[in-house]
Design a protein that fits this description.
elongated; 114 residues
Amino acid sequence: MRKKLLNLLITIVAAWIVGGFYEEIVFRGFIQTTLQEWFRKIKYSFLLAGLLASILFGLYYWQQSIFGIVPSFFGGLLWTFLLWRYKGNLWYPIISHAVFDTIALTLIYLGIVI
């Protein structure tokens, strides 16, 4: 039991680093801002860039089939919204993403989610 709990904690730390920090830096911090710059002459450049970054984020989970792609796409939209809501402060999507992953991993650990 202790070993399983330790494994969960290690996995959560890894999820915070990879899911929360790395993925948000890449998808919202780099890809979305780069796309927004490319579309800067378009009135809704942030919205278009966020939509495209969210699509790419969903496709990043291709290996999980449609059950990974769709929720990841909607998660990307949520984290894009947080980036907009907090005026480009990337810490809000990072923390939100990390908390989401922590909840999901804990539910899996508890056997509540398959």
